[in-house]
Amino acid sequence: MYNEIARSQAARWLSAAPTSLLGLPLHRSRPRRSSRARPRRVLQLRRLIVRLYSSPIVDLQEWSALVCNCDFFFNDPQNESVAEQLRERVRFFKEQNRDIDFYIVPEPVWLDKKFPELAKQVKRPCVALISTDKTWITFMKLRLDRVLRIDLKDMPDSEVLAVGGEVPEFKPVGKWTAPYARYTPGWWKVFEPKH
């Protein structure tokens, strides 16, 4: 799946790149005199494309994560719009025919292994919202406010998506004053990585 994404991104880049980046002139002010120059450049470009499509592409994506306490993420009234934002993002991705690039990882395994000092700052049980879109993660960091942002560089997808526990079922506490009902507990399960 990720190789297909990387290859489609490479193809998109090649189609959108100015031809001067590919070794071809941006425009011709007069007719070309040498008939040998163009075929050689075209062959170089074709070899580059063949190399991109035939070589194995391994984890070109860099993941970023927001880590916080489960109770804060799922049960705090301030964060009740997170569910709607995630659903809206899924809808947008379907419209664009893109694969989902974000997950909710309960008790991420990499937190204690790779970032033990940061793990001490998070009350347990914890959860991580991970994505390959750093701009969106920055937006969500500003939206959620009290979360840790961690860049997961040089980590394979299998390690990033490793789940170390489950999110407890939160029961509503206190008086609910909104004119609509609370979201059903467990709404986040559709965003957990599928193994």
TrEMBL record:
Gene3D superfamilies: Uncharacterised protein family Ycf54. Belongs to the ycf54 family. PANTHER family: PTHR35319, YCF54. This is Uncharacterized protein.
